[in-house]
Specification:
By secondary structure, this protein is mostly helical. About 65% of the residues lie in helices and about 0% in strands. The protein has 14 helices and 2 strands, in the order H-H-H-H-H-H-H-H-H-H-H-H-H-H-E-E. A two-stranded antiparallel sheet has the order 1-2.
Length: about 300
């Protein structure tokens, strides 16, 4: 297989009709490491919105059980990518996501913002650090995949194009990023979790390197001191160098799904999708969106 053979395959597909399949090829074959990092950053950005960061701190899941919360999020989203929305696994994952979210009175704009981070941050990360830039087919397909996710989650007034998602994300962050003590606690817990995946002596270096990859509005919202220009140059240069190295490697022959990531550590003996995550208030059941003429709870 040639290095750009899968890109050629993607370009022969319909980015609207085959959106989730293109997204699966791109995330599992072309950029598995990059999509993982980008989606971590996407979720991390949401903590800088005070009402989101505060809610996450109040639930205590990310501060008291950060590894489990990380694993559950990865595994639920990954099941949809790997198996599709209409599969048993995909339907189960959507149901669990909806059961968790419906416990809380989450503003529609906040839901649209979180969805926009899933669309925009991978494109920005891969264009900056990947072994190649995302093709227009992949960008359009990503929008289609996450629009479908948003529809399954019952999100209203979902944006339609990448450009609309990007404009919304930038305006939302400019208007809403800000300091909150709870958001900072969630951020600190997340940085500590990421450092825990590696040998302990590397923890300070990993924290500094992670902060060096963040933009100023995000650092300001959490009141982290800005890393030096040298630190930023070294950290970002190292990630770019990784991308250039990957470009020289043979193309991946087998898919690598997020469930296979070494960072997922909480289920050494396996897991059931319908048991992942947190649980809704007793008496509240089901999914707010109907699937194939019936609710996901049926």
């Amino acid at each position: 297989m040639k290095r750009f053979e899968r890109l050629e395959q993607i370009r022969r597909m319909d980015p609207h009709e085959d959106a989730s399949e293109i997204y699966r090829i791109s995330s599992a074959y072309e950029f598995p490491w990059d999509y993982t990092r980008a989606l971590e950053l996407a979720l991390y950005r949401t903590y800088a919105v005070p009402r989101i960061g505060r809610l996450l701190a109040e639930t205590a899941e990310l501060t008291e059980h950060p590894q489990k919360r990380y694993d559950d999020t990865v595994l639920l989203l990954d099941a949809i990518v790997e198996h599709g929305f209409d599969s048993v696994q995909g339907t189960t994952a959507v149901r669990r996501i909806n059961q968790m979210h419906r416990r809380y009175d989450i503003a529609d704009d906040d839901m649209r913002y979180v969805l926009s981070t899933f669309v925009v941050m991978p494109r920005r990360w891969i264009d900056a650090y990947g072994w190649r830039r995302l093709s227009r087919h992949e960008i359009v397909a990503s929008v289609g995949h996450y629009r479908a996710l948003g529809q399954h989650m019952g999100i209203k007034d979902i944006l339609e194009s990448y450009e609309e998602f990007e404009t919304f994300l930038d305006a939302y962050e400019e208007a809403h990023f800000g300091w909150d003590e709870g958001g900072r606690r969630v951020s600190d817990a997340t940085l500590a979790l990421m450092a825990s995946w590696y040998p302990r002596p590397l923890a300070p270096l990993l924290r500094t390197s992670t902060l060096a990859l963040l933009d100023d509005p995000l650092l300001d919202a959490f009141r982290y001191p800005a890393p030096s220009a040298v630190t930023r140059s070294l950290a970002r240069g190292a990630v770019r160098a990784r991308g250039r190295l990957v470009r020289l490697l043979p193309p991946r022959r087998e898919p690598h799904h997020a469930r296979q990531n070494r960072e997922v550590k909480g289920y050494p003996n396996g897991y059931r999708l319908d048991e992942l995550g947190t649980w809704p208030v007793p008496g509240i059941r089901g999914c707010p969106v109907r699937h194939g003429g019936r609710s996901a709870a049926e």
